[in-house]
Design a protein that fits this description.
Elements (H helix, E strand, L loop, with lengths): L1 H7 L15 H10 L17 E6 L2 E7 H19 L2 H11 L28 E6 L6 H10 L3 E6 H6 L9 E4 L13 H8 L2 H12 L4 E5 L1 H8 L12 E3 L7 E9 L14 E8 L3 E3 L3 H9 L3 E5 L21 E5 L5 E4 L26 H10 L2
Parallel strand pairs: 3-4, 3-5, 5-6, 6-13
Antiparallel strand pairs: 1-2, 7-10, 8-9, 8-11, 11-12, 12-13
Amino acid sequence: PGATNAKLFNEELGAVLQIRNADRDAVHAAFAEVGLADTLHEIGHLRDDHRVVIREGDATVLESDRAALRLDWSETTWQMQRLRDDPECADEEQDIRCDLDDPGLTVHVPFTLGSAPAATGGARPRIAILREQGVNGQIEMAAAFDRAGFDAIDVHMSDLMAGRRSLDAFHGLVACGGFSYGDVLGAGGGWAKSILFHDRLRDDFSAFFADPNRFALGVCNGCQMLSVLKDLIPGAEDWPRFVRNRSEQFEARLALVRVEESPSILFAGMAGARLPIAVAHGEGRAAFADDDAQTRVAEAGLVAGRYVDGHDRVATRYPANPNGSPDGITALTTPDGRVTIMMPHPERVFRTVQHSWAPDDWGEDAPWLRLFQNARAFLD
């Protein structure tokens, strides 16, 4: 046992490589070619169950269930999380660690990649990439809209306040994510109030939202900001506010979102898609004025996206639902579909290379690019 423990817990530099059986000879040859043949040792193989078995010669040193070992490994983290965060969220995350049936992140793309309606003509409509003090997602957002055929223009709120820019010069606007006002004024709430309490800006935004030929998107802080402007947005009367995450922590992770059937022009042709997406927020929990408002939104088909688990079930537990929003709600739209808000970040995953893993057939463009291409198609 002592010799076995010395091997298992040694502190020498090394790496464990998992290779296919068919590649074994090629890997050995590659190591031998550079003089490292003696450093390569075959130590194990995959099993077709969830057991972890370690042997020393003919003796079994350890045999255990994978989930049990994972629970042991995460015990300290879980107990710390229960003290630091919401304890129920900590327990729910610990429960999922021992669920051997959990498939993790799964993907379903019901549309053909690259099949978005092609823009007619060579025009590049102007979109305002709107930001405020502390916002940091404008570069990725501009890149996504640029790739979809827009002329992306950086527009700071100070430009609008000073009259250097006007919304009537743009076909669309997107309020970006980040940490507007350091997230100290209710996240996007402070941003929204700079519009609501400024007579000219309030009129400009009201006119923009009322124009049937224009569209708007709000992401993360921008989602929070537009939700506070709902009185200016036709059909948004029952939208929720977005408040502190149930976990009591800033959540930065990949989550699964299912695109729901809705009138959103940005999600056209995407209903049923189940896609991984970046989440990064501390205040993303949808809080409706009352149960009736939530019911009206749902019955009107204005819920455009929900958090789901790997089985495509609406996520009600942490961390598949990272903020505790009711019924997994994380994206909403208006009855005419021109204004859409969503808490997660599609601009951070519109290219396949932005994913840590993706199916081999995705190519250069990831499915979330379709959202930005739909915006371009709306203007044709």
